[in-house]
Structure prediction request, 279 residues.
Amino acid sequence: MPTVTTKDGVEIFYKDWGPRDAQPIFFHHGWPLSSDDWDAQMLYFLANGFRVVASDRRGHGRSSQVSDGHDMDHYAADASAVVEHLDLKNVIHIGHSTGGGEVARYVAQYGQPQGRVAKAVLVSAVPPLMLKTESNPEGTPIEVFDEFRSALAANRAQFYLDVAAGPFYGFNRAGAKVSQGVIDNWWRQGMMGSAKAHYEGIKAFSETDQTDDLKAITVPTLVVQGDDDQVVPYAAASLLQAKLLKNATLKVYKGYPHGMLTTHADAIKRYGQVWCMSG
Prediction:
């Protein structure tokens, strides 16, 4: 399997498809999934002339199940290790959910300073801060994330089935078109990873304040979210992202769920392609 070893000795698995001289798109997956969650988009953009790259976050998918480093700083550094290993330039970075936080930290601390990033796309992304605080009243109470941790520790397999069959894709909504294959694939990806990485990743995606990351980003950034996102409330996410970013385009889809890149893949791909190829 293609891997790169980070400075702290972690093997990061990655996919790299397409012509080496084409513009690269780097896809960053959500919690607790893997790069496989982007397969449909990767095939689409590959067919439309891009080089497509994606990696499994440390402790997720086929990357090393290490004990430490399950935080945004290490996530971004690991992504940078893949980018530098492949010597990618003029890259469009696309991140979903926790992957959006990874993109924001990577672009602010590595991609822009190194001159390697062209654009960024945040899809149902966690920045600037998921956790409810006095200064972030629209955030999610800590008790919700404590419940995530308790459910994961007690019965991770059942918890992952419940998340995929319920709020993640909006399959708990009346009239939703439920796909058992999508549920099973979410569960498969989640169970490939490390319970410890996923447990500690909850803190990483919920308690990391990325306000400064967003303020530092100057490249054109597309912010996309559904207004029926039951995992990352859009009022505390995409609406604030668009205000904090210096060069943002905001697209909010009515009725779309958190996992809209799967449930509404065609709409997201078409809009994303037009935006990625513009300017």
The chain has a mean pLDDT of 97.
